[in-house]
Amino acid sequence: MNSDYQRIADAIGYINANIQQQPSLDEIAAAINLSPFHFQRLFSRWAGVTPKKYLQILTVDRAKELLAASKPLLEVSDSIGLSSSSRLYDHFVQLEAVTPGEYKAQGAGINIQYDVAESPFGDIFIAVTPRGICALSFVSDGNIEPSLISLQKHWPKATMEKGSTATVKTVEAIFTGDRTIKGPLSLHVAGTNFQVAVWRALLQIDPGCIKSYGQVAAAVGRPKASRAVGTAIGSNPVAFFIPCHRVLQQSGKIGGYLWGETRKHAIHAWESARHG
User: Fold this and answer.
1) DSSP 67-129
2) For the CA atoms of 121, 210, 82, 99, what is the dihedral angle to 10 degrees?
3) pTM above 0.85, yes or no
4) Rounded percentage of the chain residues whose pLDDT exceeds 90
5) Long-range contacts of the stretch 58-64 (C-beta < 8 A, 24+)
């Protein structure tokens, strides 16, 4: 699967670099050393759409139209409480924030297990507490060390061990569209009140939809704090399932992404193909 994603990533990189020229199927296939037939089949299997349709999804004009047509996010307030849910691939994602006392304790008394799972966007590092996923990040070249360092930074007093968990199978099943998985996918995150409010707002963005940083700022009651919202989004500890990839610049440009703009393009197009 990861070798497939690398080819897809190379193709997306080529498309991005040549978007103004609207490259043909033959040109894209040649750029990644595949025949047009094999490239079309690989891309369609991975993305669920043809490369031509993906080019349409990718345009800035389409992103602007989506932003202009999008409905305001629900107001995020203290009345929501500690848990909030959002539909995601016919599953629920339930976010639970640590309490102020737990935040101060920095993970003391908590055991965290971590492992590596597969996704359509490359391998992912996943870490779980007894209450849910506390970290998920994309892995480059099989190196989980940066993910471990980040995990230890956020939960410095927790005990950590490598161990296969049922959560890994659940996450892989959600990516592949397995409809037999029941119950919510629980997230257990540590962050400031503002960060948690932003992450909750992201969970309200439906798959295949996008919002601007300004729209998210308005949703958390800080309409002039787009820059602070961007920082909170960049601190998102659970990639994909807290969907920071659904936030674009007001101009319609893709914007930055901790795990690379090419991957953000890929996730956005993959979701748009399935839910747009």
Assistant:
1) HHHPPPPPPP-GGG-SEEEEEETTEEEEEEEPPHHHHHHTTTT-EEEEEEE--BTB-EEEEEE
2) 60
3) no
4) 38
5) 58/15, 58/16, 58/19, 58/265, 58/269, 59/19, 60/251, 60/252, 60/253, 61/252, 62/252, 63/210, 63/248, 63/252, 63/253, 63/254, 64/251, 64/252
Question: What tens digit of pLDDT does each residue of 35-86 get?
Answer: 999 999 998 888 777 888 877 776 666 666 666 666 555 433 333 332 333 3
* Tokens linked to 57: 């999804």
Contact status, residue 266 vs residue 46, Cβ threshold 8 Å:
no
Angle formed at CA 228 by CA 148 and CA 114, multiple of 5 degrees: 15
Instruction: Name the average pLDDT for the chain.
Output: 82
- State the catalytic residues: 244
Give the torsion through C-alpha atoms of 184, 174, 5, 188, to 10 deg: 10
- Closest by CA to 252, choosing from 218, 222, 219, 210, is 210
User: Position 61: which residue type?
Assistant: D
Q: What are phi and psi of 160, to 5 degrees?
A: -130, 140
DSSP string, 202-264: HHTSPTT--EEHHHHHHHTT-TT-HHHHHHHHHT-SBTTTS-GGGEE-TTS-----TT-HHHH
Answer whether 22's CB lies under 8 Å from 55's CB: yes
For the residues of 36-51, what is the DSSP string, one character each? HHHHHHHHHHHHSS-H
